[in-house]
Amino acid sequence: MTGRKHDPAGAGPATPQPIAFHRTSFFRATAIVALCILLVVLTSQLMGMRHMTQSIRDWTGIRAVEATKGMSTSLAGAIKFGRPEAAQPVLDDFATNLGEDVLGALALRADGTSLASVGGDGFDMVAATALGRAAMEGGTALADEAAGLWAYPALYGGQGEPVGALVTQWTADPRIAQARRDWLSSAIFSLVVFAMALLLAAVLFYRNLSRPLQLVADQMNQVALGDLEVKVSGGNRGDEIGRIARRLERFRDNLRAARATQTENAFKSAGVSNSGSALVLLDNDQAIAFANPACERLLMSCAPAIRNSWPGFDPAKLAEHPAGRLPGLGAPLTDIRNGQKAVPCTLDLRWGEALISVYIDRVDDDEGTPIGYVLELKDISSEKLNEAVLKAIDRHQLRVDFDSAQRLTTCNARFLDLCGLALADLQGVLGPDLLHRIDVSEAERAESREKLHKGEALSGKFKLGRGQGEVYVEGSVSPLIDRNGEIERMVFIGSDITQSHVSMREAERERRETSEQQQLVVDALKVGLRKLADGDLTSSIRQPFRPEYEQLRSNFNQAVEALHEAMGAVVQNANSISGEAGEISNAADDLAQRTEKQAATLEQTAAALDELTASVKSAAAGADQASQIAATAQGKAETGGAVARQAVEAMDAIKSSSKEISKITSVIDDIAFQTNLLALNAGVEAARAGDAGRGFAVVATEVRALAQRSSEAAREINQLISASGGHVKSGVDLVDRTGDALGEIVTSVVDISKRVASIAASAREQATGLNEINAAVNDLDQVTQQNAAMFEETTAASHALTSEANALVEASARFRVDMPAPAGPRRRSRDGGGLAAKPAAQAAAGGETPTRRSSDRDVSWKEF
């Protein structure tokens, strides 16, 4: 890459000097990239090799854990029963299938001696034996990862007790060596990729760095030669080359601006002369050097007032006159010249009726030396008047300014305080969104918008759509029209009426609520009185009234409640009287009927007593026959004893059969052991197959689990058969006890025969007592005839009382009252010699006591 040097003498560009290749930025950048890529590739390869080696060791450990655990479970039976012929083939297949990964395997008995083993020169038999014994003693798996040894205790039986141990030794060295050979091939391929990437980086550096830098250097040389129209390339880049190009472009633009300054100064004088602002130029001595036409027109309008202090004043002949002769400018200009007053500054002067604002500033040359002053005069009489009016409005009214698009631009402090927001929160808000006109229809609101667009003012009440709380204002929106008849901006002037509006609204709402509450009270009383007139004493006014009407509701409810209680008592007493009268009437009818039937019943009772006497004699004869039956039962009990002995012999036969069945379970256990060995071999084959044998490994695991469950089931069957033998033995004992019980039954039958003879003697004594009871029944028949006549009179009186009670119930039925559920008819005990004696006599005669029956009258006196 070559560069260009500028001649210090300004004679032009010097002869390009070549740059050594090893010093170019292209070479240095390429070398840096090559070094960085080489470091990244070497680091990644070394870390990958380290990670791969660790992964191989971890995977070898996982396989060792799974295989050792499975082998210990499969060989538990062979270790338990000391069967090396079953364990050795399994270990051989295990070592053959896994190849170089396994150095050896060792199966230990419970006493720590070797049952079977397999392995070459690398297998550490001593360390394996020690680790297996430690795992067996602790009852848990142990591992020596440094030596590659894993040991698992062999558990057998339902309790899972250690019966031995299985130890395997693994190595990951063959796989690590293969991984290193693969890594070497990968490293060679990475070097090839590195060379290609370095070539690509060199091409990219040349196109994106070296070549653009050379172009920028050539463009800088052209600018130095004065070519300010040269196009600078690379300015859109975001790197250092782009920064250089952009700075070169600004340098070129600054040179262009310097050239344009001369042209600009030529326009300044014309601009001052033709400016609409009143400008006065003073020299360094504050004498008037120039006044533009706009200034002459302003001074002409104020000439009468200026002539009072400057006689002979002529606005057209101001040159060379001191500016301090203008009213009010002398002292300020003197202070500015003496340095007592800083510039720029603004003065307000009163020239007659006009208020003039004078802006004074100093003019310096390019080196900062003062060369004069410039004064800008402006008639601000109208502005001051408008400002005073606006200040008055801002102090007492709300003011909001909107632009031609009806968006808020500014507002006074009173409006901001009313909204509770900052000006930044309101700027840009549309007028219709801020001021919502109220108390008008949609048609009137649309008509108001049309008038506003035509330039007419809009007045009324508005609700603020922004701010805190509910705020109402009243005022008018006035559009300001420009010279073209277009709306330039809009101004809202109004006042806060929130308190008065809310008060009026609350008063209207309270009036409306009062009217509604009064109507509610009248309607509730109307409904309550109508129900009361209809006889409904359960209705009350539940809906609460306003506090001033709540006493009326309470009084009405109390009156209805008092009437309800009184009428309820009447209804309840009427029902009670009616029920009692009906009960008395029914009782009288029942007693009359019973009295008529009582005489016949007594005759039947006498006949029944005779029959009872004969029955007692017959019972004595039956007792003799019972004695004979007891003797027969004794013989049958002896026969039952013989049958019980035969049952004992059958139980012994069942016990012998159960012992034969237990031999079958041992055969099932052997089958489960062989199945477990086959599943272990299948698991080893699946492990050697890798990922392709995962599904088969799952099946082998399930088969091994099934064999384990079969072995456990055989042991459970053996336990059940043993328990069954115990139950048979218990059955034999129970049958023996049954024979003893039958002997005791024979003794009890003999005793029963003696007691039946005693019962016959008692029956004869009862026959004598029954004859005396027959005489008492005849006397009772006479008393019953007298009671019959008395009950006929009672029946007539009870029927009359029932009729009067029914009339009282019908009169109280037109009133609706809430009554508690009836507890059932009340019973009155009637104690009398005639009523109580009859049931007692029937019970004594052996008759059946009448039971209670339900009827339409709830409980009938016929039950007694």
Automatic annotation (TrEMBL):
Residues 573-802 form the Methyl-accepting transducer domain. The keyword Transmembrane applies. It is found in: Membrane. GO terms for cellular component: membrane. InterPro entries: HAMP_dom, MCP_chemotaxis, MCPsignal_dom, PAS, PAS-like_dom_sf, PAS_4. The chain crosses the membrane at residues 26-47, 183-206. SUPFAM superfamilies: HAMP domain-like, Methyl-accepting chemotaxis protein (MCP) signaling domain, PYP-like sensor domain (PAS domain). Residues 836-847 have a biased composition (Low complexity). The keyword Isomerase does not apply. Belongs to the methyl-accepting chemotaxis (MCP) protein family. This is Methyl-accepting chemotaxis protein III.
